[in-house]
């Protein structure tokens, strides 16, 4: 009887020890290194979700590569969606996934924004979805602060026939009119 | 001998990773100690004061008007700024200088907050760079730790300062600045 109790105590101790190692390490890994997410919506068609609602793509989000806020034009990134949507416990922070079109200092021509030409301010980026017209992006809410950058989408993981590495690809008609660094 | 040293190194690395991860979780989800620099929050927070900021309010969306928050700078994501929340989404805020004759007002857009430093003459805040997205807020300052003669929770101090500020604003700005919570 005493031996069974001793065994039970040891299991509990081992459980808590494992718990306090596994949970912080996992949480830190998912916050800082990489995580996986399902893409919803049609704003990035045809690059992501070409099949619509029947087959959502699952992408690998890489936090580590943007730890210094190092993005290029053409990258697909996920942002914290704090823009023009009320935050509440019922409506928690969602992430939006878009392509970076312009960096700070670039002058670009907008599609449907309140100003026809925009110079992207310091510390901001201009993002757009590939499916113009069906995309809630910088053409609606303007330049986005780099502090809202969440991760870079590097690979499509699911469905298996769409396994691929997502390369930075800037559509030629969306190139900036004047770049800051030439 | 070598295996013994290798074993020790791996154990050391293991502990470092484990405690590093616990530290990250604590700072990200609970709170941490912050050293404030700059004159923009005087007299509430002086230069080189040490304060404790808690990060739970941000995750539970309990940031209120009058809170002092730590925010990622909108123009430089690698630095943090410390300001007071003057308006939440939907509030009417005064965007002109107190010395201007014609007052201009605007409404804080959804998903944003309006920040101002307590030292209005010497503070770059939302009056310069506009409303700040809620997602940039890192934490809320609740306790001042150093200097020891000014130790204490900032809640009551905050409310007093905020009320005195709001009444000053009311005098300068003819329209009601915003409702005191």
UniProtKB/TrEMBL annotation, chain A:
Residues 14-109, 114-158 form the Peptidase S26 domain. GO terms for cellular component: mitochondrial inner membrane peptidase complex. GO terms for biological process: blood circulation; brain development; cerebellum vasculature development; DNA damage response; mitochondrial respiratory chain complex assembly; ovarian follicle development; ovulation; protein processing involved in protein targeting to mitochondrion. CDD domains: S26_SPase_I (cd06530). The keyword Transport does not apply. It holds the Pfam family Peptidase_S26. InterPro entries: IMP2 (IPR037730), LexA/Signal_pep-like_sf (IPR036286), Pept_S26A_signal_pept_1 (IPR000223), Pept_S26A_signal_pept_1_CS (IPR019758), Peptidase_S26 (IPR019533). The active site is at 43, 98. Keywords: Hydrolase, Membrane, Mitochondrion, Mitochondrion inner membrane, Protease, Transmembrane, Transmembrane helix. It is a single-pass membrane protein. GO terms for molecular function: serine-type endopeptidase activity. Gene3D superfamilies: Umud Fragment, subunit A. It is found in: Mitochondrion inner membrane. Heterodimer of 2 subunits, IMMPL1 and IMMPL2. Belongs to the peptidase S26 family. IMP2 subfamily. This is Mitochondrial inner membrane protease subunit 2. It comes from Ficedula albicollis (Collared flycatcher). The gene is IMMP2L.
TrEMBL record, chain B:
It is found in: Mitochondrion inner membrane. It comes from the Eukaryota. One of its GO terms (cellular component) is mitochondrial inner membrane peptidase complex. Its EC number is 3.4.21.-. InterPro entries: LexA/Signal_pep-like_sf, Mito_IMP1_subunit, Pept_S26A_signal_pept_1, Peptidase_S26. The active site is at residues 40, 83. Gene3D superfamilies: Umud Fragment, subunit A. Residues 16-97, 104-146 form the Peptidase S26 domain. Pfam families: Peptidase_S26. Keywords: Hydrolase, Membrane, Mitochondrion, Mitochondrion inner membrane, Protease. One of its GO terms (biological process) is signal peptide processing. GO terms for molecular function: serine-type endopeptidase activity. Heterodimer of 2 subunits, IMMPL1 and IMMPL2. Belongs to the peptidase S26 family. IMP1 subfamily. This is Mitochondrial inner membrane protease subunit. The gene is IMMP1L.
């Amino acid at each position: 009887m005493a031996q069974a109790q001793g065994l039970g105590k040891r299991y509990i101790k081992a459980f808590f020890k494992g718990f306090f190692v596994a949970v912080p390490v996992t949480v830190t890994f998912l916050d800082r290194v990489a995580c996986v997410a399902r893409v919803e919506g049609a704003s990035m068609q045809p690059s992501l979700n070409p099949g619509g609602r029947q087959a959502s793509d699952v992408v690998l989000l890489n936090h580590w590569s943007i730890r210094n806020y190092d993005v290029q034009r053409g990258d697909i990134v996920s942002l914290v969606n704090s823009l023009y949507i009320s935050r509440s416990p019922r409506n928690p922070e969602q992430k939006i996934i878009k392509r970076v079109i312009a960096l700070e200092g670039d002058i670009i021509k907008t599609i449907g924004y309140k100003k026809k030409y925009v110079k992207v301010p310091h510390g901001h980026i201009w993002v757009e979805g590939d499916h113009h017209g069906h995309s809630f992006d910088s053409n609606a809410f303007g330049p986005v602060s780099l502090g809202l950058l969440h991760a870079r989408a590097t690979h499509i993981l699911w469905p298996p026939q769409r396994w691929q590495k997502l390369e930075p690809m800037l559509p030629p008609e969306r190139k900036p009119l004047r770049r800051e660094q030439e | 001998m070598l295996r013994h040293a290798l074993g020790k190194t791996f154990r050391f690395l293991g502990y470092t990773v484990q405690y590093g991860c616990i530290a990250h979780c604590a700072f990200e989800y609970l709170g941490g100690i912050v050293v404030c620099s700059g004159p923009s929050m005087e007299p509430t927070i002086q230069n080189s004061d040490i304060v404790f900021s808690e990060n739970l309010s941000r995750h539970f969306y309990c940031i209120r008007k009058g809170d002092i928050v730590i925010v990622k700078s909108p123009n430089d994501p690698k630095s943090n700024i410390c300001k007071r929340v003057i308006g939440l989404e939907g509030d009417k805020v005064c965007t002109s200088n107190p010395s201007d004759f014609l007052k201009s007002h605007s409404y804080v857009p959804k998903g944003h907050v309006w920040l101002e430093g307590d030292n209005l003459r010497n503070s770059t805040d939302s009056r310069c760079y506009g409303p700040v997205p809620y997602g940039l807020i890192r934490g809320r300052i609740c306790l001042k730790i150093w200097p020891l003669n000014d130790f204490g929770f900032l809640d009551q101090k905050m409310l007093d300062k905020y009320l005195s500020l709001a009444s000053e604003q009311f005098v300068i700005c003819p329209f009601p600045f915003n409702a005191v919570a």
